[in-house]
Design brief:
6 helices, single chain, Endonuclease I-creI, 4-stranded antiparallel sheet, alpha+beta
Length: 203
């Protein structure tokens, strides 16, 4: 078992390396664009429409690391889509994250580094001297609670310039903490990772 050492010398029990990868980590995709769909009460699958093909490929690899095969295709809108097959072991995520046809945040939800890593892959990007995390614009009731979950993880975030579905994390110390929590970028996912050097990027 591995633990990350923070900038202040403390050991983080919430980093992506603190425990082995597991299906529970996929909740991080649901913090952003991910959606769960059930097949009766027998199985469920995770899907996410993302902005760039490399995000879909990276998410598919991370899903496979957690024992869930995933395919990359195109959504009806033409954007990249990553999707798992229906699986019995994804039912807990579906039950906790959906109410009827709506996506909800589970009661008592606690974010950790592994989930934050998946969120960054799905919907994170450096911008200026900060870092942006996209929320699901179709699940606005999750937004405030996700801000709270980030704060509990030691990563305070604010709504970015009136964009209700974008959160911004600023400050070198906070960005360094995010990097400690999520670990190194997977190959090809470097554009999504926080940077301690200001990055000029169109939003």
């Amino acid at each position: 078992m591995f633990y990350s050492v923070g900038v202040d010398g403390t050991i983080s029990l919430f980093s992506a390396e603190a425990s082995g990868p597991g299906l529970a980590d996929l909740a991080g995709v649901l913090c952003g664009p991910g959606r769960m769909a059930g097949f009766g009460r027998t199985a469920a699958r995770l899907s996410a429409v993302v902005d760039e093909p490399w995000r879909a490929r990276a998410l598919a690899r991370e899903c496979r690391r957690r024992g869930a095969e995933a395919q990359v295709t195109a959504a009806d809108c033409g954007r990249p889509l990553v999707r798992t097959p229906f699986r019995v072991d994804l039912l807990p995520l579906e039950r906790h994250w959906t109410r009827g046809e709506e996506k909800v945040l589970p009661d008592g939800f606690r974010l950790d580094g592994a989930m934050l890593r998946m969120w960054a892959l799905a919907a994170g990007s450096p911008q200026g001297n900060g870092y942006l995390l996209a929320l699901d614009p179709e699940a606005p009731e999750t937004h405030e609670r996700l801000i709270t979950a980030l704060a509990q993880l030691g990563v305070p975030a604010k709504v970015f310039k009136g964009e209700d579905s974008l959160l911004r994390i600023t400050g070198r110390r906070r960005l360094a903490h995010v990097l400690e929590l999520i670990g190194d970028a997977p190959v090809g996912a470097e554009p999504a990772w926080p940077s301690l050097v200001p990055v000029v990027r169109a939003v």
